[in-house]
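REQUEST FORM: STRUCTURE PREDICTION
Request ID: SP-0412
Submitted by: Lab K.M.
Chain count: 1
Length (residues): 530
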Amino acid sequence: MSVATGRRATDAVYLHADDNICVAARNLSAGEAIEVAGTTIRLAEAVRLGHKIAVKAIRKGDYVRKYGQIIGQAIERIDPGQWVHSHNLVNGDFVRDYASSTAVPPPPERITDRVFLGYKRPGGKAGTRNYIAVISTVNCSATVSRYIAQRFDQRALRDFPNIDGVIAVKHGGGCGIQYQGLQHQVLNRTLAGMAKHSNIGGYLLVGLGCEQATSGYLMQSQGLVQIEGNGKLANSSGSAGASPSRPLVLSMQDQGGTTKTIEEGVRLLSELLPRVNDVKREPIPASEILLGTNCGGSDGNSGVTCNPALGVASDMMVGCGGTTALAETTEVYGAEHLLTRRAVSVAVADKLLARIKWWLWHTGLYGVEIDNNPSIGNKEGGLTTIAEKSLGAIAKAGATAMTEVYEYAEPIAPRKGFVFMDTPGFDPPSVTGLVAGGCNVMVFTTGRGSCFGLKPCPTIKVASNTPMYERLIDDMDLNAGEILNGRSVESVGQEIFEKILSVASGEKTKSELHGYGDEEFVPWQIGPTL
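STATUS: Completed
RESULT:
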């Protein structure tokens, strides 16, 4: 990567010798001259931060390249200095050479001495937070679940300093689905993943009583047991022992309605509080961090600054023996050939390609094209095609080998290293799947300024550019926009890594300070509502 500079400030970033475009590092005016790739280019028109500028003549039908990769085809001639965007560039058709498992990278440099202060959980898992969850099995019990959780405010928890809060895990589904069908199985995995999450010290299931997604089938199919806060299993009498009990479960219809269910839920959680509070943070190897990565509100510089920097942090996490998870299948489309080459085996590569094919089939059922994925905001920020967006998005995964591909909300274990999870690109269901899969820290990159968090997993937000970081300073944790002014990607990546360890040890993120995370739990609903 090279930076084009003018008389006043950094002008543009030229990413690869094969590229025929560069990316504006600030708002540029028509007529300005910038130096790019050893030549002077005069801008034919104004170009905004994050948008593309032609550095070579591009003929109609030629491929446009960024990161050394094809991001689309020109639909008209584009001269040097012209703005390159949706008016003269489309995704187009081009052949991808998947070359599965042909470029498996060597393991990263081993990091052996890094720890964080977390909570040891059964089975060797480690928590970075300690919440109690009231989990609604169906939308019909969502309000009651919320009312139960609301009774445990800061005043109610003042004698339980080791509990981060009581949260209501509520959603819009749970009925009108085929029993044991795809939607049911996905919802079951998601709810069970929250119940079993290492950041959850105890939980209560609340249902209506007549829903399709019954508590009984959830417990049976997912092997749910109630966990004491001190990491021990509870026996049938509620005391610590070797024989696990059924989870705490309430049915509104069996309890006698809204009020009685709320009061019984409050009583049960009041008894649970001392046991969940009976934990303390202790040093745990960084290898027990399961890092989720996501991007939202991306712009043209996301793939230049924050995403590559997060990739450096991801590689460092893998070097510690930990796990980093990439997701958003619709936002790797067009760049999947770079992931298949890194797969540890052809079988792992084929899993990813199978999910890509499924998405093409699934979206085709509704007459939707995946290339419509870049949002209005993405395009305002300089992104044009899904290939461009995807190439920038996969930078979050660094450069290590892809060791596994998981279904939505499938437990990410025991495989370590860089893994992929099949999720939509929409932030709430994507992060919900990653958290249900076990991620105990999330890093969320953004160029336009997404404000996001999802309890019980702390979310670190990283800005792609300085103007947005300064404008949304109350929501952004780190500024990768400094890369546009000469700071190295590696330096910002190391800062992200240190922030991950600090947050895992208890430091509050901006989204946590705002209280984000109660409304962002959105399980992916696939298929018809019956």
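NOTES: The first strand starts at residue 2 and ends at 5.
Reviewed by: T.R.
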